[in-house]
Amino acid sequence: MEQKTIKCGDVGEINVYVQGNRSSNEKVIFTVHDLGCNYLQYDDFINHERMQPIRDRTVWVHVAVPGQETDASDLPSTYSFPTMQKLGESLIHILDELKIKEVLCFGEGAGANILARFACKHSDRVMGVVLLHCTGTTAGLMESLKDKVINWKLEHIGMNPTAEQYLVLHRFGSSSSKFNTAENAEQLKQVIANFQEELRQHVNPKNLKKFVEAFLKRTSIADKITHLKCPMLLVTGQKSVFSGTTNSLAQTVSRHASVKDLVNFIEVKRVANVLEEAPEKMAESFQYFIQGLGWASGIPMVHVERPPKSRLRSMSMEVYDQPKLRLRSMSGGENDISQM
């Protein structure tokens, strides 16, 4: 992993981490992380065995949002933390500095929102976008009130149980009392424990407050994203707190004739965090997506289990009445996958 520090206009210097061997015909995947995370958020997924064929054929360029690196020092008191829009627009400096012609964007949560803004502003440099748990709306009233409490505590108390619980809910979509009912309960509890330990030991709470605040003040992207001309893969877990907003964003985009055939929406059943709880399903969906871009034509597919054909044909009138967006609902159990 090669680390570079790149000046990004008014946003200032941004740390970037390049994973993979660069070449003249490289395929670059461009990532931005979520709240309470850094570029290592994607490490386990990228290194998953199902991702090896893709990993061997691609270069990953990871962006660290200012002040969110592991063990980061306090941002200067004079530093004006950028808006989500300014962050997204400024990322073009990274591509220019690294002499990257075009990228595939891959982000989760707040990172997905930032990359959506980047793709809308610099569509000529984007081949496709993969957005997990992406919300296209402004913050609602309850989210705003909750975030203001969290921000105050991060500023005056530092990392604390309330902030921790909020960030766990943001990423894993359920209260800790319900984690025992998850499909992979023990694995999920360990992942959450590791996340909490990272928050307590290595995340700068004052810097995190600024990132949370910028996310709270985000503007809507629902109207902008409909102008994208590249393929889109929108993904959410059924139990994610952003499941409804991701679904709404997919439906909004699908209503626009110019882009509706470019949109894929996938909801993975019985999980909140798709990358952590269902990496095999995410890897398969991602592989299908990049094959559609012509990136991975030589990779053999390893499929998740499919339902009988009769099951695929059985759809309610409510489903038939929905916009003809390519939609799949995935689960790891007997309910399998339905598609329309």
Automatic annotation (TrEMBL):
Q: What's the short name of a Pfam family annotated to this entry?
A: Ndr
Superkingdom assignment: Eukaryota
Q: What family does the entry list?
A: Belongs to the NDRG family.
Name of the molecule in the record: DgyrCDS6936
Organism of this sequence: Dimorphilus gyrociliatus
